[in-house]
Amino acid sequence: MNSIQARGEELRRLHDAPELLQVVNVWDAVSARVIGDLPDSRALATASHSIAATLGYDDGENIPLDLMLDMVGRIVQATELPVSADLEGGYGDAGETIRRAIGVGAVGANLEDQLRPFDDAVAAVRAAVAAASAEGVPFALNARTDVFLRDAFPTVDERIAEAVRRGRAFLDEGATCVFVPGKLDERTVERLVAGLGERRLSVIAVPGSPSPARLQELGVARVSYGPWTQRVALTALRNSALELYAGGALPPGTQTLN
Fold first, then answer.
1. Do the strands 44-45 and 108-112 form a parallel or antiparallel pair, or are they unpaired?
2. Is the dihedral of CA 205, 130, 11, 55 positive or negative?
3. Is pTM, for the whole model, over 0.90?
4. Which residue among 14, 84, 92, 136 is buried most deeply as judged by most CB within 10 Å?
């Protein structure tokens, strides 16, 4: 899958296919190679939180865009799979940021609304879709709403209603699917799918979330893991260091993956 057009078409196909698209998030070239080489990996997604942490920055667009895109480009070069880039809120110019991400080989992106005013959030999605179209690259935009991550809506019913309102508007502007992060129970997922449509909801899996198999049954399009994959790796590193400091040995079965 050498051309960017082919990778873009494949990523769009994976979002439209009846099977749940499961993406294990990566944060640098070596994590991309390790995950990309697995036979069940069909696409990769970056985690902005993890990339920022790798380079010594807090999450939330504190890392300079140039550094973020440099790492995205390194990840693209490390795999033949299509790569979706987590571009946070678009760094002040969603269209230009999407254009630059395509320039380093990304064929999809997360774009957060950060609960900006409704019209501003919709305009950012419109600009992102237009930028990808202008570049002539098939592009999968995972338009994210932060309704379940912030305290603006006190009840679940209000959060679902606002997520569906925003999500439908994002889809009308050409987004591929709607990303609603948060610890969602099965009933909430069911209601979001009913409001947005089958295979239009994207979620994050956190400890306690429904299983991928159950998410597929519920009609979810995509599941990712955000910073949790890096946390798994760092937990293993920390535990190994504690074992070594206590006089132990490296974990049996450790593989040479780098």
1. unpaired
2. negative
3. yes
4. 84
